[in-house]
Amino acid sequence: MQSVSANTYSVHFNDKAYTELNTHLEKANYSKVFILVDENTHQHCLPSFMSQIFGDYNYEIIEIEEGEINKTIETCVQVWHVLSELDADRKSVMINLGGGVITDLGGFVASTFKRGIDFINVPTTLLSMVDASVGGKTGVDLGSLKNQVGVINLPKMVLVISSFLETLEERQLHSGFAEMLKHGLIRDKKYWNELNLVSDFNKLDEFIYDSVVIKNDVVMQDPTEQNLRKILNYGHTLGHAVESYFLESESHKTLLHGEAIAVGMVLEAYLSNKLTGLSDDSLNAIKKTFINRYGKVSFTDEDIKNILTYLKFDKKNSHGNINFVLLKTIGECQIDVIVSEDLLYKSFAYYKV
Amino acid sequence: MQSVSANTYSVHFNDKAYTELNTHLEKANYSKVFILVDENTHQHCLPSFMSQIFGDYNYEIIEIEEGEINKTIETCVQVWHVLSELDADRKSVMINLGGGVITDLGGFVASTFKRGIDFINVPTTLLSMVDASVGGKTGVDLGSLKNQVGVINLPKMVLVISSFLETLEERQLHSGFAEMLKHGLIRDKKYWNELNLVSDFNKLDEFIYDSVVIKNDVVMQDPTEQNLRKILNYGHTLGHAVESYFLESESHKTLLHGEAIAVGMVLEAYLSNKLTGLSDDSLNAIKKTFINRYGKVSFTDEDIKNILTYLKFDKKNSHGNINFVLLKTIGECQIDVIVSEDLLYKSFAYYKV
User: Fold this and answer.
1) A4-168 fold
2) Which of A20, A120, A321, B62 is the most buried (most CB within 10 A)?
3) Is the Cβ pair A111, B142 closer than 8 Å?
4) Mean pLDDT confidence for A104-122
5) Which of residues A236 and B133 earns the better pLDDT score?
6) Closest-CA residue in chain A for B72?
């Protein structure tokens, strides 16, 4: 599979990924190679990853606890201390082997350690392959506020090795698939239609590639999210609020990121139908796709009220306005749409029926 | 006084500084203006600063505790939380009003909050005017490791208002003056000679300007410290180690940054005499200047041994080597000089006699 070139780095796939990594490590002459893992990727991904690296490098493995709940500054502090104790210097490199928590947190730790060392992302979940792998967003959560602290900084390279998906549970694959559906909705109706036919999650390689190309194309045109890049936030304004609320609320089970934005994409399709001309047919098709694949999450009136209070912390807002990315049609977006609170409540009513 | 233009921002002085700030705030239309202070600058600098800002902006004052001991990630976490609670968004700005702790920490907090908001530095100490004001280095300490976590990111503007120096104790002025002496040593013998004649710290305006020009010239040529910028680290390799050790050791009083690098500059002048051709006369002149102005710090053999263990954490090192910037003559440097441990011990012996 061909590599996808971003501004100053490339996304490499499968066998080619290992070849490129070996070439890079040999050339870069790093003083030390740190590999950041969690207990899952330590057990299920690290052995096969290491077996493909040749050359006698100075390795250290750093393991953190898995899960969004550990994507915190406190975990960063631990990793910064470990790096210091293990004599990491500015010529060290950090390889982030894991899902979005590992690549987001590891990217932030590397970008800020001694004011920045090289890092390489090796996403091991479908979600991180199609989302975190491209674009340079790094960061951690602050309490329940997602990605509140971070920087935009590019990895040296991204390696997508689809055999890691074999280690994932079905629920994790569905979560990543939601971001792929989003890529279709915001940018490519044909791709959306193709994805709707997918039932076998063992044959995703070509689709992963398509999603990386779509996201990369958007990010390359607008790396710092002034305009076009905002379309990647479709479903995320309400989706993040739902995710944050469920993460913090003790009476709700935690939703995976893709499960939360699946809700957000239905809610925001309703807003799109009311405000930016999305047709009734498209709205119904979108709702059907997501409810069929992800089921329906239950919200009480109290839940909805609480979720809407999270919106004011959304990074995309300014001057007290809530900005949405909405759909004009499937495949085309409108950015910077301001939505009334009343309509937000109505979107939940539509989701529930 | 003329402004000094850096890559994408300018350093403005005194009255012009306030004019430029007012113009910028009016044009930028920030959603909120956050001013970071410590208890000292809150009391002694904020009132006169605020009296010079016109326009009806949405202000919030954030106060942190003063001192290097509070230049930590824990303080950052507090400030990030306060920003979140006060509805800071991506269109907010942070004005850092204080010494190096405020500008370094505030710059890091702003650079990482929601992946980066604008910040403006208003240094209130001599040290921060001539050092932190230019170059975009932000960061905090990790335990006793100075600036171990940070990013390089440029402020929107820097305002040097020399009347703030009237609020400082003599010892603080001396600390800043050490960095100015360094600018002479590494880049400009004439400037070094002029500074040696300075006794009245009430008339520093022109010298501050000269130091900003020297530092800016170096940083502009090499913003990411690949080569030339390393010369700014003269005196800092050993100076930082001394500073860190005294900060952490309970049996020593804490040294100000300038006091520590004054020691470092004598030690590294000795190394320069042995390794890079600095003349005996220059070595003696350098020692005399610093001992006369800063006195002599006492070191036991145990102290020296401990100080040298800090060197391995220096950010400028890689592959286990300790890299020094040394002087060839007063006004000219050589970078990337490797020094044996034996010679490091001898430099302390020279300092002590």
Assistant:
1) Rossmann fold (3.40.50)
2) A120
3) no
4) 97
5) A236
6) A77
**Average of per-residue pLDDT across B146-166:** 95
CA angle A300–A260–A171, rounded 5-degree value: 115
A158-167, A310-319, B8-17, B120-129, range with the lowest pLDDT: A310-319
CB contact under 8 A, A315 and B114: yes
Domain ranges of chain A: 4-168, 171-352
Q: Do A89 and B315 touch (CB under 8 A)?
A: yes
Can you give the pLDDT at residue A317?
63
pLDDT of residue B96: 98
**Record: fold of B222-352:** Dehydroquinate synthase-like, alpha domain (1.20.1090)
Q: Which helix (H) or strand (E) holds B38?
A: strand B33-38
Cβ pair A84:B139 closer than 8 A: no
Partner-chain contact A148 B116, CB within 8 Å: no
Tokens of B85: 């609670």
Q: Residue A32's closest chain B neighbor by CA?
A: B319
Smallest CA–CA distance, residue A201 to chain B, in Å, is 34
Nearest to A113 among B31, B149, B152 (CB): B149
The ipTM assigned to this model is 0.88
B112 vs A84: CB contact, 8 Å cut-off? no
d(CA A191, CA A260): 22
CB pairs under 8 A between A and B: 103
Chain B partners of A154 at a C-beta cutoff of 8 Å? Answer: none
**What are the pLDDT digits (tens) for B205-233?**
999 999 999 999 999 999 888 899 999 99
What is the Cα–Cα distance from B98 to B39, expressed in whole angstroms?
A: 10
A164 vs A105: CA distance, rounded Å? 20
Architecture of domain A171-352: Up-down Bundle (1.20)
pLDDT tens digits, one per residue of A273-311:
999 999 999 999 999 999 999 999 999 999 999 999 988
